[in-house]
Design the sequence.
């Protein structure tokens, strides 16, 4: 359960204070799949950083599963990220010199996890990359790289998956695959999925669209019938691209 | 994050840029090898010097005149001419000196020496027959200076091995004439070769009767009469009676010189000389190590430099790791361990290289002409490894702190 109560974020740029978020209140229930929409500069990335515990709000309260994480220091936030949040990035953000397996292992290194090898393989299988574990990112297609990214986000079994423009660098077919995987994770495993995007089509895959402009929420609507990704399930994803 | 994972991550990060890691390593390798080699040489030289002095015997006392003082300005130890040959005889003949076994006064000067067409400058030492026993200077050919020679002011000379070689080559010098400071002497003996540094060797000396040295060669004479000497070598009955021998010498000389206040002579033991020399050679070894340490320091700065570059280059990686839950301590440890691994690896290779080098230099003439043993030892190796690890920690901590303090969002924005 994500609860933002009148949250602001002010960045200092030289001698100027810039308000990236000017008082946002938002509640996202567990197991929800939502999209945050807005143009660049609207404050949606800032909102995502706050929800993902990468940053602390300037004012207001952020309760994550009832914990006031807005007051946490850097290292406690790191622990929360490690345990509760999985990140999927537009540019994948894989470490180029590591294999797919080692990339997926990364979150496990920072939490005393046991059985790392098996869990990484399992996560890669879930995104249909069971046969690509020893490939390095540059040997994989964009869609495959993003699936490694999703496997990495999944491996600690987080309660929240945060995807920042997850299809921004992908062709439409790969985009459909990725959306299919995210939908399935939300539907079958009950993971809260939050997608930040500026494409209405991607947002249409979710059950709720929160629109943000100039650091304020301007619209919050439920999607009656979310679009289902054309390529369904992870078996299908495994043969993709 | 456990230690194994940290080390594995560090190795993989360093492996990503092998040439860079290798060159950084080289800086430490050279530094550590230099420290080990130079300190091995230093220790070897130190051991050689101590050994040679100890070979002379540790049961010796040296009596030297005190310093002259003119209007409060000291002339330095031994500058006075207060000791005479009579003092030496008194020490050896007195029944109140049971701890003393033999006494040998000496008077040194240096002079031009000519033999045939050869000509050299040598140290001339005026001595008495006891010198042979007290200072352990056995004769190889011919004979040593006798009491008769001393009584007659005989113009006879015993040559050090090197002097004999220089002046006569392979011919026998016995019975040959030699001109010392323009006066004709006759060679009656050659000393055994001693080898070693010129510091305590007789190889480059010429020995003549102390009376001849004083009356025929010395430049200055005392007005009180009696032969003034520079050193009285006193051989004691053994190491265990050094203290009583010292007291006996002091008592006799104070009586003879009618001293009520400050002594006009000083007595030092062989042991003190060794200790003083060891102190000096310790400084020498430390100095060598410090010079080599500078190159180690430069290597350490190289590590810091490359780690700073690495932190900048891998800002995005740091951001990713932080997003995945890495705490500041995790990032700090990662970069510190990379730096330490570099310096320890360099230390290990440098240790091996230093060991090989000091073995190669062993038994070679490094200083002077005589071979020197290098003394590679475990404590030097340990020191080098500890120092190189410390350098990695010291020079790695600042770049690592910069990495650890990066804010995850800032790190992500970095391209």
Sequence:
């Amino acid at each position: 359960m994500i609860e933002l109560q009148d949250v602001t974020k002010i960045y200092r740029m030289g001698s100027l204070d810039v308000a990236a978020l000017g008082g946002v209140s938002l509640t996202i229930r567990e197991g929800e799949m939502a999209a945050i929409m807005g143009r660049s500069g609207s404050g949606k990335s800032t909102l995502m950083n706050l929800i993902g515990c990468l940053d602390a709000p300037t004012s207001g309260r952020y309760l994550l599963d009832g914990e006031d994480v807005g007051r946490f220091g850097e290292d406690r936030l790191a622990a929360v990220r490690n345990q509760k949040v999985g990140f999927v990035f537009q540019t994948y953000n894989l470490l180029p010199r590591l294999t797919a397996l080692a990339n997926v292992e990364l979150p496990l290194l920072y939490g005393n996890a046991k059985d790392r090898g098996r869990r990484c393989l399992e996560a890669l299988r879930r995104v249909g990359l069971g046969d690509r574990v020893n490939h390095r990112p540059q040997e994989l297609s964009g869609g495959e790289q993003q699936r490694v990214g999703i496997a990495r986000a999944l491996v600690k079994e987080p309660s929240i998956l945060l995807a920042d423009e997850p299809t921004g660098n992908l062709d439409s077919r790969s985009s459909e695959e990725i959306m299919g995987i995210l939908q399935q994770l939300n539907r079958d495993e009950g993971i809260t999925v939050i997608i930040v995007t500026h494409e209405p089509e991607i947002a249409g895959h979710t059950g709720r669209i929160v629109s943000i402009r100039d650091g304020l929420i301007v619209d919050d609507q439920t999607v009656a019938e979310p679009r289902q990704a054309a390529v369904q399930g992870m078996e299908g994803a495994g043969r993709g691209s | 994050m456990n230690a194994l994972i940290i080390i594995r991550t560090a190795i993989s990060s360093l492996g990503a840029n092998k040439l860079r890691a290798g060159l950084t390593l080289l800086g430490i390798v050279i530094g550590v090898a230099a420290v080990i080699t130079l300190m091995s040489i230093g220790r070897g030289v130190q051991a050689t010097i101590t050994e040679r002095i100890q070979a002379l015997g540790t049961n010796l006392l040296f009596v030297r005149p005190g310093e002259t003082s003119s209007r409060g300005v000291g002339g330095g130890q031994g500058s006075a001419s207060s000791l005479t040959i009579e003092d030496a005889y008194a020490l050896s003949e007195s029944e109140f000196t049971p701890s003393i076994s033999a006494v040998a006064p000496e008077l040194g000067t240096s002079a031009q020496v000519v033999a045939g067409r050869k000509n050299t400058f040598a140290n001339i030492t005026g001595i008495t027959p006891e010198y042979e026993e007290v200072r352990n200077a056995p004769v190889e050919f011919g004979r040593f200076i006798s009491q008769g020679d001393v009584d007659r002011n005989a113009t006879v000379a015993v040559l050090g091995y090197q002097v004999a070689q220089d002046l006569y080559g392979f011919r026998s010098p016995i019975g040959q004439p030699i001109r010392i400071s323009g006066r004709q002497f006759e060679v009656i003996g050659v000393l055994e070769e001693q080898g070693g540094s010129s510091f305590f060797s007789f190889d480059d000396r010429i020995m003549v009767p102390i009376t001849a040295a004083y009356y025929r060669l010395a430049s200055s004479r005392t007005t009180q009469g009696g032969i003034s000497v520079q050193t009285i070598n006193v051989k004691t009955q053994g190491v265990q009676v050094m203290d009583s021998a010292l007291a006996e010498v002091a008592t006799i000389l104070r009586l003879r010189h009618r001293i009520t206040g400050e002594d006009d002579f000083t007595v030092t033991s062989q042991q003190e000389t060794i200790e003083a020399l060891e102190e000096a050679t310790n400084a020498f070894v430390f100095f060598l190590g410090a010079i080599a340490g500078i190159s180690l320091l430069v290597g350490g700065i190289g590590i810091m430099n490359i780690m700073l570059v690495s932190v900048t280059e891998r800002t995005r990686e740091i951001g990713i790791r932080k997003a995945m839950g890495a705490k500041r301590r995790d990032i700090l440890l990662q970069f510190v361990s990379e730096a330490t691994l570099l310096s320890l690896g360099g230390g290990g290779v440098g240790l091996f290289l230093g060991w090989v080098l000091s073995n190669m230099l062993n038994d070679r003439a490094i200083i002077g002409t005589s071979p020197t043993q290098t003394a590679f030892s475990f404590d030097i190796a340990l020191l080098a490894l500890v120092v190189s690890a410390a350098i990695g920690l010291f020079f790695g901590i600042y770049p690592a702190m910069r990495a650890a303090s990066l804010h995850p969002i800032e790190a992500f924005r970095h391209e």
About this structure: Chain B is about 55% helix and 20% strand.
